[in-house]
Fold this sequence. Notes:
Elements: E1 2-3, E2 7-10, H1 17-24, H2 27-30, H3 41-50, E3 58-65, E4 71-81, E5 86-93, H4 103-118, E6 123-129, H5 133-142, E7 145-156, E8 159-169
Parallel strand pairs: 5-6
Antiparallel strand pairs: 1-2, 2-3, 3-4, 4-5, 6-8, 7-8
Helix pairs in contact: 1-3, 4-5
The chain binds coenzyme A (COA).
Coenzyme A binds next to β5, α4 and α5.
Amino acid sequence: xxLGELVRLRALAPSDAESLWRWNNDPDVxxxxxxxxxxxxxxxxxxxxxxxxxxxxxxxxxxEARKDGALVGLVRLRDARPESGCAELDLYIxxxxxxxxxxxxxxxxxxxRYGFDSMRLHKISLAVVTENHAAHxxxxxxxxxxxxxxxxxxxxxxxxxxxxxxxxLEGELR
Length: 174
Ligand SMILES: CC(C)(COP(=O)(O)OP(=O)(O)OC[C@H]1O[C@@H](n2cnc3c(N)ncnc32)[C@H](O)[C@@H]1OP(=O)(O)O)[C@@H](O)C(=O)NCCC(=O)NCCS
């Protein structure tokens, strides 16, 4: 378990399946996220049961609000390799009514601090659709900078969108 100011990051359990399934079926939540093949709730539960425990290469945490213990989202550091000191980050707050309360910012900072201090990473990278202004703002505020633009690399509702690739080096977390 990793403690932030507003959130605590903890391993997922099969009993979290209902939340994940609900979030993945909410068009507002998945608007700027990679499309996935529809899954029945029971399949999500089985996927969580079969999931390997967290490891250096793939650390997935549920984001819990410290004030009431509610699971509000997910954050993940994946593809980490000690040889390169680099990893990729994914983040989302699935509970819409919790948007705007600082949970994403705190979970992002907490996970980056964990990556730099405990995993001894040198760099964390991510991709965000250029139109996803809230997420882009949260990443910039924490210290991520744009490093490139992936042209027309995200497709939604008949339209192509660009994505920013963003990166943060150790020492740049704000
Ligand atoms: C984007 C997301 C992660 C933000 O989570 P959150 O918990 O609401 O974020 P926070 O409360 O920590 O901060 C939100 C910030 O964005 C700002 N913001 C909100 N809407 C915005 C917009 N349309 N344009 C610019 N900034 C915006 C807020 O003012 C706030 O800024 P502040 O901290 O300087 O006051 C969340 O809405 C989400 O998960 N959305 C769906 C999935 C997603 O897009 N994930 C990211 C994929 S890369």
